[in-house]
UniProtKB/TrEMBL annotation:
<dbReference type="InterPro" id="IPR006984">
    <property type="entry name" value="Fcf1/UTP23"/>
</dbReference>
<feature type="compositionally biased region" description="Basic and acidic residues">
    <location>
        <begin position="178"/>
        <end position="191"/>
    </location>
</feature>
<dbReference type="GO" id="GO:0006364">
    <property type="term" value="P:rRNA processing"/>
</dbReference>
<protein>
    <recommendedName>
        <fullName>rRNA-processing protein UTP23 homolog</fullName>
    </recommendedName>
</protein>
<feature type="domain" description="UTP23 sensor motif region">
    <location>
        <begin position="192"/>
        <end position="211"/>
    </location>
</feature>
<comment type="similarity">
    <text>Belongs to the UTP23/FCF1 family. UTP23 subfamily.</text>
</comment>
<dbReference type="Pfam" id="PF04900">
    <property type="entry name" value="Fcf1"/>
</dbReference>
<feature type="region of interest" description="Disordered">
    <location>
        <begin position="169"/>
        <end position="247"/>
    </location>
</feature>
<dbReference type="InterPro" id="IPR057776">
    <property type="entry name" value="UTP23_sensor"/>
</dbReference>
<feature type="compositionally biased region" description="Basic residues">
    <location>
        <begin position="223"/>
        <end position="233"/>
    </location>
</feature>
<dbReference type="GO" id="GO:0032040">
    <property type="term" value="C:small-subunit processome"/>
</dbReference>
<comment type="function">
    <text>Involved in rRNA-processing and ribosome biogenesis.</text>
</comment>
<dbReference type="Pfam" id="PF24779">
    <property type="entry name" value="UTP23_sensor"/>
</dbReference>
<keyword id="KW-0539">Nucleus</keyword>
<dbReference type="InterPro" id="IPR029060">
    <property type="entry name" value="PIN-like_dom_sf"/>
</dbReference>
<keyword id="KW-0690">Ribosome biogenesis</keyword>
<keyword id="KW-0698">rRNA processing</keyword>
Length: 247
C-alpha cells in the first residue's frame, strides 16, 4: 500500500514539476486543521513530508493562521505549538488579520507565483484551492499524508498550454522583457510601419487608346481628291471622242 501511495505521489509531483515549474525546496503552507490532524494521528510532518514529496521542503504558515489558532484557545493549543515551529510567510493582512483559510487563498492568487503547496483538512478551503490551476493540495487520510491528484482546472490549463492557446502571465512578462533587451519590439513596430498599403489599379491597364493623328487623315483626303480629278479627265476625253465620231 505504501509503495502504491509513493508511486501516485511521484506521478503527481512530476506533473507539477513539468507543467508548473515546481522546484526544490518545495514550499508548503499549512493551516491549523492540518497541524491538528497531524498531532492527533502522531504524524511527524517535518521528518515524513520530504520523503513523501521526494525532495527538500520548507514548512511555513502565516500570521493570520497563528492568530486564528491563538484565538481558539486550549482546544487547538497543540496545533498552535506545531505551527509556531514553521517559517512565517508575509501576507497582506498585517493590520487587519483574516481567517486562516482566507489568508492562504490570498497567498496563491495570480497563478501561485511562489509555487506554494496548500496543506489543510478544511474541505471548503480544499474545494476553493482546486478551482485554481497549479496549486498542489495535501491532506491527511488514515494516518498518512496524501498529495491530491491534479484538479480538473490544472489539467485543463495544461491542455490549453499544449495547444498554444494560453500563456501564463509571468511568462508573458518575461517574453516582453527579453524582446526589449534584444530590440525586437522596435523591429516589429518598424515592420508594421513599412507594410505596403493597398495599391490602386495597374496604370498600364488604364492607358487610353491612341487617337489617329491628323497627319494620318490628310493623305487619305488627298488620295480621294486625286481619284476624283482622274475620273473627270476620263469623262472629258470620252465625250470628245464621241463628238469626233459623230462628225
Amino acid at each position: 500500500m505504501k509503495i502504491t501511495r509513493q508511486k501516485h505521489a511521484k506521478k503527481n509531483m512530476g506533473f507539477y514539476k513539468n507543467n508548473f515549474h515546481f522546484r526544490e525546496p518545495f514550499q508548503v503552507l499549512l493551516d491549523g486543521t492540518f497541524c491538528q490532524a497531524a498531532l492527533r494521528n502522531k504524524i511527524q510532518i517535518r521528518e515524513q513530508l520530504p520523503g513523501y514529496l521526494d525532495g527538500a521542503t520548507h514548512l511555513c504558515t502565516t500570521r493570520c493562521v497563528l492568530k486564528e489558532l491563538e484565538s481558539l484557545g486550549k482546544a487547538l493549543y497543540g496545533a498552535k505549538l506545531i505551527a509556531q515551529r514553521f517559517q512565517v510567510r508575509n501576507c497582506s493582512h498585517l493590520k487587519n488579520p483574516v481567517s486562516g483559510s482566507a489568508c492562504l487563498l490570498s497567498m496563491i492568487e495570480e497563478g501561485n507565483p511562489h509555487h506554494f503547496f496548500i496543506a489543510t483538512q478544511d474541505q471548503d478551503l480544499a474545494n476553493k484551492v482546486k478551482k485554481k490551476p497549479g496549486v498542489p493540495l495535501l491532506f491527511i487520510i488514515q494516518n498518512t499524508m496524501v498529495l491530491d491528484k491534479p484538479s480538473p482546472k490544472s489539467l485543463a490549463f495544461v491542455q490549453m498550454l499544449q495547444t498554444n492557446q494560453l500563456v501564463p502571465e509571468h511568462q508573458k512578462q518575461s517574453i516582453v522583457q527579453l524582446k526589449e533587451k534584444e530590440g525586437l519590439t522596435r523591429q516589429e513596430s518598424e515592420k508594421r510601419r513599412k507594410r505596403k498599403r493597398a495599391g490602386g489599379p495597374n496604370p498600364l491597364s488604364c492607358l487610353k487608346k491612341k487617337k489617329k493623328t491628323q497627319q494620318s487623315q490628310e493623305p487619305s483626303a488627298e488620295k480621294k481628291k486625286r481619284k476624283r480629278k482622274r475620273n473627270r479627265v476620263k469623262k472629258e476625253v470620252m465625250q470628245s471622242v464621241q463628238k469626233m465620231e459623230e462628225e
